[in-house]
What does this fold into?
Amino acid sequence: DSLQEWQQAGYNVNIDRINMKERSKGTPLEDWGSRLDEWHDGPYYYAHLSDATRLVVLYTEGGVYFDTDVVFVNSMDNVKNAVGWERPDSLCNALMAFDKQNPYVKQVLSKFNDDYNKNDWAANG
It folds into this structure.
């Protein structure tokens, strides 16, 4: 088990296979999740599915998400309800830390659900 070493060190880590149709139920992304078959032929399907998955998990569970290429120079212990900032006109989902059912994440999920464009890489959420 590749996680055993982390678990023995006291970390609560595991790998779960996520069914987005089920996982999105009861969230603002439920309609989008129920229509995955429609989105599958989009050129950015897997990027969008990844974005949706991390947002749904943060909304339903709370926690911290960061891309594997993020380098921390300070502790994340006190970072709460925050999203990365990329440039003046753009936020970046490479780093997100939110409480469970955070209203901002709820709004992002609603926008993703209502305005989804399978042909635009960066227009969702």
Summary: The chain has six helices and three strands. The first strand starts at residue 63 and ends at 66. The two ends are 35 Å apart (CA to CA). The longest helix spans residues 45-61.
